[in-house]
Design goal:
By secondary structure, the protein is of the alpha/beta class. The protein has one domain: Rossmann fold (3-Layer(aba) Sandwich). The strands form two sheets. Strands 1-3-2-4-5-8-9 form a seven-stranded mixed beta sheet, sandwiched between helices. Strands 6-7 form a two-stranded antiparallel ribbon. The protein has eleven helices and nine strands. About 35% of the residues lie in helices and about 20% in strands. α2 packs across α3, α4 packs antiparallel against α7 and α5 crosses α6.
């Protein structure tokens, strides 16, 4: 069990003390709170921890460098004593951070789940995406306004991420920082980091997700010990859009990693 400071961005969410340790990493513009609906069943498998990345309700990094985000994550994971054997589950940006963590500190990561993110977005730009966000009618005055604007799935995601002030719901980080994070991915690939991951890995791709076409399949082909699953009828927020399919893919993988048994070949 990790000894956490009260103000730590690493949150102890409880769970089975005798099981493994499970770390959940959120996506870009998300927060530790976006995993709430998965916590009940994950707690049955082990001790669960969530983490708020730099700039997401916290001070922003000096520059939008993935290595700085991972430095910060490692610092908090090891602050209460060096911990090992984490099953790391990362959505989107959290998947990239999980890959980099496993590549750099294999002693900390027993197994890795990467949800709907590739490792090579070079040549892409965040300009159009940022222009859309810049037109959001923030602050949103009520919960209902957020849900009406984004719909029930994305709306709940943002309600669990936004900062709530007296005048309504605001972005919980600087738009420029979110842009710069995505722009770094347009300049930098993470193939080398992926190929250095030595632990078992599960790649989950959404049918209507954001991974470049065929890239997660290629990742699976290049890395022995990895598995690939396509989640049908889902967009980028797989764990919320298709929670049953997500659980059916993730639960046996996490269980086998905690028990150190080979995963079944049955999806």
């Amino acid at each position: 069990m990790i000894a956490l400071r009260r103000d730590s961005p690493l949150h102890d969410e409880g769970g089975v003390l005798g099981g493994g340790s499970i770390l959940l990493l959120h996506g870009l513009m998300g927060s530790a709170r976006t995993w709430r609906r998965q916590l009940p069943w994950l707690r049955e498998l082990g001790r669960v921890y969530t983490f708020d990345a730099l700039g997401h309700g916290r001070v922003a990094p000096a520059r939008p460098d993935t290595d700085l985000f991972v430095d910060d994550l490692i610092a908090h994971l090891t602050a209460g004593g060096d911990i090992r054997d984490l099953v790391v589950i990362g959505h989107s940006m959290g998947g990239i951070h999980g890959i980099c963590l496993a590549a750099r500190r294999p002693d900390l990561v027993r197994a890795l789940v990467v949800e709907d993110i590739g490792v090579d977005y070079r040549g892409r730009t965040a300009v159009e995406w940022v222009s859309v966000i810049d037109r959001w009618p923030t602050p949103f005055p009520t919960r209902a306004a957020v849900l009406d604007y984004f719909g029930p799935i994305a709306g709940q995601y943002f309600l669990e991420s936004f900062r709530r002030d007296e005048d309504g719901y605001h972005l919980h980080g600087e738009l420029g920082m979110f842009r710069d994070i995505a722009e770094e991915w347009g300049r930098r690939a993470f193939w080398d980091e992926w190929l250095r991951v030595s632990c078992p890995a599960l790649l989950l791709e959404a049918e209507r997700g954001v991974a470049p076409a065929g890239q997660m399949i290629r990742m699976n082909q290049l890395r022995p010990g990895s598995r690939y699953t396509l989640i049908s009828n889902s967009g980028h927020l797989v764990h919320d859009e298709q929670p049953a399919a997500y659980r059916s893919a993730v639960e046996p993988f996490v269980t086998s990693a905690i028990l150190r048994t080979p995963p079944s070949d049955t999806p």
